[in-house]
């Protein structure tokens, strides 16, 4: 009897906490398909807001994905070899470089954005293109890629594997492709997942760096909250949700599969 | 590309030292010659520089300026490991977890552009040679320690290296497996006729596998010789005590006799000094009746080890002597015994330390 009471209490508490987190999501999404939010759901269900958001912000959505995958590409191409180099080289200099790469985690996004604006704001073409936002995202997400790859390197003794491949005649590039990258795969996948997620949701930095022509999903969301009907902003959230959740689930599954291998 | 027997390069090491960036000298400049087809063992306690020496030969470390590594008279000092055509077995094996056993063994051949059929044939040959049939398609994490060791060896030998380098390949295994693999490895190295350099801290391994042994200590070579030379004729106290058990005795010398508290020993080696330090192996000391010996003592303890009895005899020398006697001997603790030692068994060591 007492056990069942405790169980019921725990279940109730868990459901309460879950509801606390889930209800706003549900409300927000339902607001996006309601004709008039202030009159409630009885005012009718509609997709007009979703269509309106899509018409207004399709560009932002496309740009967000472009930037997210470009960020992923840059962090992969630069971050994985960098992690390899830092791990194999070792020593104090590597530690210092690793700290510097990690620094953007501790510095507010606004400060990074300000520094980028102060330095490169004068280069009009660069400042006005999406590459400027890409730069910010790369700076911000790089530590996640480098760190998660380095964590794997530390756990599989990559240095000895590298020496083993070298002793068998493999050149540095061949070793990197045949031995280093395949064995770092769990870290690369975990890092990729984090980089894409962070880039898609990044607001601080992006808000400072964007121009009216280079807005991303979260910036557009803030925009619509600030300037449009609540239903529109909510529809926006709905689209954000529909786009990101399947992507994250797919990447997670991919990562798990990679780890099992 | 046929036949199992490889060819071995003669390796010449000239003045190779290694000082690490923080200033510690891992290896004092040393020179070594390794004959083609020979198995040379680098033996010593941890931190003696043996692994550094191996890594210099492999090309994984650069010797300090002035050092040179030659394979068959070709200077390899500036050649990176991937072009030295060596085979290497690492202590941790360094097998690739992302490849199967067969892919691991064939990796070096694939890198060299050997076509698929020839590669498969060579892999099969290696699998048979190292007794790992049936494991070809396993992943590395599905293998036992002993199996991994065999795969690592097969992978290193598959490319027909000019020099086979083994860095404590048996250390990670448990004792009984180690003994079995040691003798397998021995017959394998003999049948391959390859130049092999083997690093170990285990003197039994060194004795069994080495054509010659290089005993190292604190970054320097203490002695180079055949296992017999190292064992019976150590050149210094460190080698005497590191390789096998040794009794070190010390005393005044006159007329070719070394005087000890319990009598004297006849010396074979001529000694100029008035005093000498000498080494006697425990199994070279015979236990005889007290009246028949020139050296006497009291048995302090008797330990039955199985294949022999280990006695500790006090009063004969400055320190208790360890004596390995046949297991049929009938002595008890407290008994007075005589010790017979032939002059050849007494090895005079230089005074040092």
Strand content of chain B: 25-35%
For CATH, the homologous superfamily of the largest domain in chain B is named as: P-loop containing nucleotide triphosphate hydrolases
Computed Rg of chain A: 23 Å
The low-confidence runs of chain A, each spanning 5 or more residues with pLDDT under 50, are none
Largest sheet of chain B: 6 strands, mixed
The best one-word shape of chain A is globular
- Order the strands across the largest sheet of chain B as they lie in space: 6-7-8-3-9-10
Q: Quaternary status of these chains? A: heterodimer
CATH class of chain A: Mainly Alpha
| Rounded average pLDDT of chain A | 85
- What radius of gyration of chain B results from the CA coordinates? 24 Å
Could you tell me the number of beta strands of chain A?
Answer: 0
Number of domain modules of chain B: 2
Structural class of chain A: mainly alpha
End-to-end C-alpha gap of chain A: 46 Å
The CATH architecture category of chain A equals Orthogonal Bundle
- CATH fold-level assignment of chain A: MetI-like fold
Question: Main traits of this protein?
Answer:
heterodimer; A: 261 residues; mainly alpha; MetI-like fold; B: 353 residues; alpha+beta; Rossmann fold; OB fold (Dihydrolipoamide Acetyltransferase, E2P); 6-stranded mixed β-sheet; 20 strands; elongated; disordered N terminus
